[in-house]
Write a structure and sequence with these properties.
There is one protein chain. The chain is α/β, with parallel strands linked by helices and 210 residues long. It has one domain: P-loop containing nucleotide triphosphate hydrolases (Rossmann fold). It has 9 helices and 8 strands. Strand 5 and strand 6 form a beta hairpin. Helix 2 crosses helix 3, helix 4 packs parallel to helix 5 and helix 6 packs across helix 7. The longest helix is centred in the last third of the chain and has 15 residues. The relative contact order is 0.19. The structure holds adenosine-5'-diphosphate (2 copies) and zinc ion (ZN). One adenosine-5'-diphosphate binds next to helix 1, strand 6 and helix 9.
């Protein structure tokens, strides 16, 4: 059993790359952001509590996130390992994860701050299959029609606005970025330049995973 963590600031391309690598590794993609948005949509107790933090661009408390992951690893498809996207985001989350599953590779996708706002503010995704696009950097081939599934149900996230992005970026620097050193200390951190073409980054990640 081997699990992978995709690490990086909001908008680094974690979700974009996860969707591509999952085809090669066969490890299911686990996005805590997607799990939280599903909880908000379903109006669960977790969703109601998490929404306050998400709307403000702050991290959701560790206990909520760790409970979500503990449940997720019970699913039958987790036996071969998982690919985490956007989790862990704090040292306590990483410590909890280390007691739940073995992480063998942490891929840090590095993107400078000045690129983040334009990436996040141009992001949209297919409401049907979840594939992520960008207004200028990665648009659908046909305007408003998903390349993968043909749906015309394109969505933008309420928290993908400039104010919230700046708050999310500061939460990243304060609470999440120290994890890079933490994982480097364990000898499993691999750095990838996330400021180039999407295909190139996918190749670099696959090399880092060897
Ligand atoms: P992005 O892809 O832009 O980084 P996500 O979809 O991963 O955004 O997360 C959206 C929001 O959900 C975050 O701003 C935060 O409030 C919450 N969130 C997601 N994952 C975590 C986590 N591991 N720990 C704490 N909060 C989280
Ligand atoms: P994350 O999951 O890390 O928040 P996403 O994968 O959702 O990031 O990507 C954020 C936005 O940036 C999306 O609109 C996506 O299409 C775009 N994007 C992803 N990778 C790149 C790249 N290498 N160059 C330019 N834009 C990118
Ligand atoms: Zn689609």
């Amino acid at each position: 059993m081997s699990s992978i963590v995709l690490f990086g600031p909001p908008g680094a391309g974690k979700g974009t790359q996860a969707a591509r690598i999952t085809q090669t590794t066969g490890l299911p993609q686990v996005s805590t952001g997607d799990m939280l948005r599903a909880a908000v949509k379903n109006g669960t107790k977790t969703g109601i509590e998490a929404k306050k933090y998400m709307d403000a661009g702050k991290l959701v408390p560790d206990s909520i996130i760790i409970d979500l992951i503990k449940d997720r690893v019970q699913d039958p498809d987790a036996v071969k390992g998982l690919m985490f996207d956007g989790f862990p985001r704090t040292i306590p989350q990483a410590e909890a994860l280390s007691n739940i599953i073995e992480v063998t590779h942490v891929i840090a996708i590095n993107v400078p701050d000045e690129r983040i706002v334009e990436r996040i503010c141009g992001r949209y995704s297919c409401g049907s299959c979840g594939i992520v696009y960008h207004d200028t950097f990665n648009p659908t081939k046909q305007d408003g029609v998903c390349d993968e599934c043909g749906s015309t149900d394109m969505k933008r996230r309420a928290d993908d606005n400039e104010d919230t992005v700046l708050q999310r970026l500061s939460a990243y620097h304060e609470q999440t970025s120290p994890l890079a050193d933490w994982y480097d200390g364990l000898g499993i951190l691999r750095n990838v330049n996330g400021d180039k073409a999407i295909d190139e980054i996918t190749k670099d990640i696959l090399i880092a995973l060897n």
